[in-house]
Amino acid sequence: MPNSQASASTSPPSRRTFLASTAVAAAAVAGGVPLLTGCSTEEGSGKGGTTSGKELKNLLPTYVASKVADPDIPSVNGSSPGYTKAPPAAELVASVKGKPGHGGSYTMFEPLWGTPPPKNNAYYKAVNDALGATVKLQPQDGNTYGEKLGAVLASGDIADIVVIPLWEMGGRIHGAVSAKFADLGPYLSGDKVKEYPNLAAIPTAAWQMSVFGGKLRGLPMPSRPLGSVIPYYREDIFTKEGYHVPKSPAQFLSLAKEITRPKSKVWACDDMWWSAQRFFGCPGEKPYYWIEKNGKLVHKVETENYLEALEWCRKLFARGYVHPDAVAGKANDALTRFTSGQTLFYNDGEAKWYGATFEQAGPNPDFRIQGMDWFGPDGGDPVIYLDPPAQIWSFLNKNLAKDQIEEILALANFIAAPFGTKEQRLIDYGVEGVHHDMKKGVPVKNATGVRDVQDTYRFIASPQASVAYPDFPRMVEDYCGWMRRMGEFARKPLFYGMQIQEPNRYASLYTPFEDLAKDVTRGRKSIKDAQRAISDWRSGGGDRLRDWYAGLLDENGGGA
């Protein structure tokens, strides 16, 4: 998980930064560590690695909901369920009988955002003992994971279990998944998954995104529906200063002027480009960057919404409302600027809601952040597109024997245990008295737990995403409330839940627009430059890519 100890960056927030912050949060539960700091598909292939609805029906595992613990805050409008209380240890349920493993030993290659725990620590030993097998973790720096992953896949010296995030699926890695990893369909498709009840309780949409090259290959980490970008604000300071939360882009600019006091080292916000796109109803990132208008696919960059978002964000920078360090592109310090009160608005992934709350609980007990409700361009209802239902997967080496695959799936079933189980308490908190202590009925990690009990095992497989932070129940209520409200306006993007690999000749078409947005919002380039770039995109392959996606839409009966 990106944390406060990460090396400084000189580039503004990237798509990868937000995706990592969001997807990893699905693995973080109550008392978790603070989340702060090949082969290619043939280009002529019509499906680009996608699978039609009829084929999917035969591939996907049967869904059987977990009945372990009813949430304190049920799902509304598709929101994730919330848990504000922790069951006493004596009331925890065992979702797995005995030890699932049979003495096997497996290597696991995975990303880690933070300081790796010591090898052979007591947490690893406790988990491996409970598993009845050994998982030898090989954590890698999450910030450079893609480079190492590509080299490993190309070398052929591949671990038994390999974790790959969605944002690393570019280039040849997506195609390598089909060539290097096992087909799990014979073990999990249909009712076969019932052998592994915790895996059966993973939502179907997450399994749908686990189909690569026409085969069920991934074990997913389900995502929350709207957490990739959240516009945070300092509710404690707003209350103290009497500020009112804006309800339109125009009100935001007016409040930003009121807040900004450079002599007092206070600016309204950090770089808000990612929020700007949602204020103006832009669709999401690849492959969700299309909308359908008058029977034709229109790319995000071709919409007036996109240009309006650029122009609004440009005004924030031009009027001096953005912190100068953000103007300079020091993205990794954004959270520090926010928690120190130098900025009052800040956008990032959902992991920061708990991470910042955890970090500030001791030194700043009055600290409280909120997610600002999205609004439309004129202050009306927003248009919000759902995030992918899964963004991280683990894959099993295709050279593993059948009994080894079955053993790893049994381990994954243990690790995917939901909130309220003995397995979940162990995976997320370690051993009581060693890694955590019960305080006021809540498990709280001690220093050893914070160091060692990180979200390493959860990358193998995770339960349905929830908001389970009983150490900060008010934060759970705040986040679930925000999701419930925003869920009313959420819609599925085109190609929702589809695992798409664009032909290689189009793979880099969209890449220049991230730098272009930075240049336009900071005044280094103009809106006219953006319009020229859009025209170049069309003639340089964008129109052909549009036709390719239109073919996918037709093959899949009009999309999600």
UniProtKB/TrEMBL annotation:
Taxonomic lineage: Bacteria, Bacillati, Actinomycetota, Actinomycetes, Kitasatosporales
Disordered: annotated segments: 36-55
Species of the source: Streptomyces javensis
Domain of life: Bacteria
Protein name (database record): Extracellular solute-binding protein
PROSITE patterns: TAT
InterPro entries named in the record: SBP (IPR006059), TAT_signal (IPR006311)
